[in-house]
Structures are given as C-alpha cells and as structure tokens.
Design goal:
mainly alpha
Length: 118
C-alpha cells in the first residue's frame, strides 16, 4: 500500500514538471507572438519604398518588404498553432493532475485507516 502511494506521488510530481515546462513554453511563445505582431504592424505602417533588413547571425541582409511581411505572417500562424497545441496539452496535464491528486487522497485515507486499525 505504501509503495503504491509513493509511486502515485512520484507520477504526480512528474506531471507537475511536465505541466511547468508546457506553461513556460507557452509563455515564451506568447512573447514571440507579441513581438511578431509588433513587427507586422510596423511593416504595415511602412512606406512602400522603405528598406527592410533581416538579421542573419551578425549580419543585416536587405529583404523585400512583401517577403518580410509574408515571413512574419507565416511565423505568427506557426506560433499561434503551437500555442493552441500547448494549451490543449496544459489542459490535459491539469486533468491528469487532478485525477492523480484524487487517487493519492484515496490511498492516503486508506493507508491512514489501515494504520489506525492496526
């Protein structure tokens, strides 16, 4: 009984770690999304003859404005879909944690009753 309880607690802790990683990843992606949305807004506000540069390593390379806008839009789409995927994963982790928590409470109660009756 005690070994099963320890196993369930270890699984719960593992779920918590996975949940934390997913939340952290979502936070990072949300920051990237905001940054890309600001870039998109800036590109839309630019004059059509303005020069756009892309940072590749330590070098700024001239880039076509339409190509830059398309790249930013594509990145926004990719980041948004990744955020949706992570949100679904986070929801699953929350549900699994809640189920595991209930299982641990049941095992703790049974364990305490078993000790009390001994």
């Amino acid at each position: 009984m005690e070994a099963k309880l320890e196993k369930e607690v270890a699984e719960f802790q593992s779920l918590q770690k996975d949940y934390s990683k997913a939340v952290s990843a979502r936070s990072t992606l949300e920051s990237q999304l905001k940054e890309n949305e600001m870039v998109q807004k800036e590109i839309k506000n630019m004059k059509s003859d303005a020069t756009v540069y892309k940072l590749i390593g330590p070098v700024l390379v001239k880039q076509d404005q339409q190509e830059a806008a398309a790249n930013v839009s594509h990145r926004i789409g990719a980041i948004s879909s990744e955020i949706k995927r992570l949100e679904a994963q986070i929801k699953t982790f929350e549900e699994k944690q809640e189920a595991k928590k209930m299982e641990i409470v049941k095992l703790q109660t049974a364990f305490q009753q078993m000790r009390a009756s001994s």
